[in-house]
Amino acid sequence: MTEKYEVKLSRRESLKWLGALSASSLIPAGVAFAVETELTKGIGHWPTLKLSPITAKGYGKDPNLIIPPKSPWPKTLTQSQLNLVATLSDILVPREGEVPSGSEVGVPDVVDEWVSAPYSRQQRDRTTILSTLLWIGDEAKLRFGKTFNELSSAEQLMIIDDIAYDKNVKNEEFAQIIPAFSRFRSLVLAAFFSSPAGMKDIGYIGNVPIMGDYPGPTKEAMVHLEQVVKKLGLTL
Amino acid sequence: MNENKYPVIVVGSGAGGAMAAYVLTKAGHKVLMLEAGRDYDPKTETPMFKTNGEAPLMGSGNVDKDFGFYDATVDGGWSVPGEPYTTGEDSEFLWWRARMLGGRTNHWGRYSLRFSEHDFKGKSRDGLGADWPFEYHELAPWYDKTESLVGVCGTNTGLDDMPDSSEGVLQPPPKPRVPELLVAAAAKKLGIPTAPMHRAVLTRAKDDRQACFYATPCGHGCSIGAAFQTTTSLIPMAKATGNLKVVTDAMVKNVTVDDQGKVTGVTYIDKNSHEEVSLQAKVVILAASACESARIMMNSKSKHHPKGLANSSGQLGRNIMDSTGTGLGAFIPSLAGRPKYNEDGHTANHLFIPWWGHKAHANNELDFPRGYHFEISSGFKQPGSGVSSGLQGYGSSLKQQVKDKYGAFVYLSLRGEMLPNEHCYMEIDEDVKDKWGIPVAKFHWKWSKHELNQVEHGLKTAKEILETMGATINHPLPSAEKAILKGGQIIHEVGSTRMGASPKDSVTNQWGQTWDCDNLFVMDAGVFASNPHKNCTLTIMTLAMRNASWLSEQMKKGAL
After folding, report:
1. Could you say which of A61, A120, A217 has the minimum Cβ distance to residue B76?
2. Which value does ipTM take for this structure?
3. Which candidate from B38, B63, B341 shows the least CB-CB separation from A119?
4. Which one of B150, B198, B387, B470 has the largest count of C-beta atoms within 10 Å of its C-beta?
5. What is the pLDDT of residues B216-269, one digit of tens each?
6. Measured between beta carbons, which residues in chain A are less than 8 angstroms from residue B469?
7. Is the Cα dihedral B320, B551, B500, B105 positive or negative?
8. C-alpha to C-alpha distance for B553 and B555, rounded to whole angstroms
C-alpha cells in the first residue's frame, strides 16, 4: 500500500475547493516542525515534537452556515502523512462489500482539517495525532527497516495488533502509543460515520422531512422494547 | 412621529422585547426597537438539513461557535469579540449573549413549562429567597394567551408541578421514543412520574408558520417557523401593524434622565458608524437580557440616581440566579442493537421527568429546599465528531462495536432551582470598557449548600434510574462541588432587577415598572423574584405580554 492518497472532492463539492487544494498542498510557512525521536532503551521510543503553533484564524463568529467555508484554514499534513493516514484509515475502516473504506470517504481530509485547525481542542489533538503518525513510522523502521506504507499487510498488522488494544498498555513500550492511537482511531471513526456512506452504514435514517405527525417507534422497535422492559422486571 | 422622539423605545428583540413590541404595536402604539446585534433572517440563513459531515470539524463546537458550527447564535456565545466581562476573585461565571435580531430565541431549547403556585410563593413556604408580588392564578390567563400565540405542544398532566393549560391551548405532543419510554418505565418503578415535555414547537400550522416536519435541530434555528423564535413570529407580526421600527447594530450605552430624575430616552452607539446617537422617548422598556439591562441601568448613574438608575433599593444587580446543572449518563446494554427507526422527532425531549418531590418537601424529608427536573438525552442521533469510548481493535469488529453502542446511551440532565444569595451579583468593572467605550459587567458567584445538596440528590437519583434500566455504573459519583456546572452555564440568568411588593427590597413593581421611574420598565428575566427549575423563556414572554398590556392601558389613560 504505497499509493498516494488523493484528497477527495466528494466531501465538500465545490469548484472553490480546487483553488484551496493547490494552495494547501504546499506546507504553509510557519507550520513546519522539527522532530526528535528518543530511543530510550527498555521502554521504547516516543517522538518529541517541536511544533510551531497554528496561527491561522478560525472561521469566526458569523460564518455562512448555508455554504460552510470549504477550507477554513490551511491544511498542514504533508503528502506522506496523508498517505499514512489513508493506510491507517483503511485498516481501521476497511471496505466491506458496498460500504466504502475510510480513505474512500475522505477521512484523511477530515483528519487534516482537524489537526490543522486553530482551536485549542484540535491543537491538543494535533500533538497526539502527529506523535502517533511519527511513532508508527519509527516503529516500522525499527522493526522492518521500511516505511509503514512499504510494509506488507501482515507486517502492518503486527504493529497495529500491539497498539490497538488497551490490554497491552501494561507493556511500557506501548504505554504512550495506545491512548494516542485510540484518540486517532476515534477521530477516524467519527470522520467515517459522519460521511453519507457512514451514516447509512450505522443506520441513521433521520434528517428527512415527515409530513403529518411524528410516527414514533416502529412495531418492531416496540416489540423489542417490550421484551427489554419485561426482562428488567419493569412495566410500561 | 418626530425622528428623534418616540412614544416607546424597546431595548432588545428577544423573548421579552419582541413580546412587548408585539403587544404595544397591536394596541396602536408606535414603538422603536433597538437591537445590539445584526439583522437576521431565519428564512434564508438557517442551515436546514445540513449534516455534521458537511461542516468544518464535523460540526463540533469551539470558541467561535460554542454549541457547534450550525448553532444559530450570531456574533455571540460565551464570548463576544470586543465586549468582555470580568469576574471577581474566586468567582466563575459565564455570560451567553447573542448579537442578532431575535437574540437568544433563535437557538433556545424551546422548553416551555409554566411556573406553578408553589414557584411564585417559595419564601412563604420555606422562608428563603423572595416571593413574587402576585399569585399563580393572576398569571394563568396570560400563560394561556402566550402559549396560544407562541404555539406550545404538550399535554395537561394534572401533576402538581405542571399546572394545566386551558382546554384547547396546547398542541398535541409527539409520540415518545424508545429510550424515553424505558426511562419512564424505570422511573415508574421508583415512584417518579414522567410527562410529555412542553415545547414551543408547532405540531399544527399557525399563522404564517408551518408545523414541525421532525428534522433539523431547533438550535440551528427554524426556517419554517415551527420552532418559535421572535424573528419568524412576533417581530414580523409587529412590523405588519406599521407601528414598529427596528434599528439593528444599536448598542445601548445608557438611559438618559432629566433634572428630576425622570427617564427621557436612551443613548446608543451605532456599531457601523461608531457614532453616539441620543433618542428621546416617553417610555423606555429594557429587555436586553437580565444582565445587559442591569448593566445599562448601572451605567446610567445621575444626580438623582447615584447608585445606578432606579436603584434606591440597592437591589440592582443583586439576586442573580441561574439554574443548577449537572447530569449523569450510561450505556444501557439492553438497548444495544435495537431496531432502527427515525428518532429525530422534534429534536429534543418528547418525555422528561418533572419535579416529583413536593410532598417530600412538605414533609421535610429533603436536605435542600427547591426542586429540579431531568431532561433525557438519548436516541439514534445524527453521527458527528464524537464516538463512544472504550473501543478496541480495528476493522469490521471495531465498526461493529460502534454500531452496537449506537442509540444505547442515555444521559439525564438535571436542571434545578437555585436560591439567591449575597455572593451572586454583578457590578460595573470601572477599569474595563468594551470596544464601544461602555464599562463592562463584573460578576461574582458562589453556590450555596442548597444547590450542592440538590445536585447530590439529583446525581444519586439519576444513578438509580439508570441502574434500574440495567446500566452498570462502576465509577463513584463526583462530588456536588465538582459536578455542578458553572454559574451562567445553563443560560437561565435572572433576578438582577427583581420585582417585589415593596420599593425597599425590589427594583420594579409587579408590572416591571421601576419603583423610582414610572416611565422605565424592565421586561426581561431580570424581574424574576425567583428562578424555578422550569426554564425562564415562557415566563419572560408571559410577563412581557401581561405587563406591556398594562402599560398600554396606562398610556391610553394618560397616566404615562
Report:
1. A61
2. 0.95
3. B63
4. B198
5. 999 999 999 999 999 999 999 999 999 999 999 999 999 999 999 999 999 999
6. 232
7. negative
8. 5
